Task: structure prediction
Amino acid sequence: MSLATVVLTETVHARELPMEPILYGVVAFVVLLALAFVTYSYRDVANRHRFKAEAYAARHADDEHAGH
Result:
């Protein structure tokens, strides 16, 4: 049996994918879309607490260790 015959025989019995190749792209797109939504949900979080931040800064404005 020649090497070419062995290689051709082995490639014929290659392992099948568990799902269609296009579905890998769809799954990746859905996962990245979910991560983008999570990232987008954190937008403007600092401005939601602006008054707390301003009050904290006013209380600690004369602190000697401000800015470390």
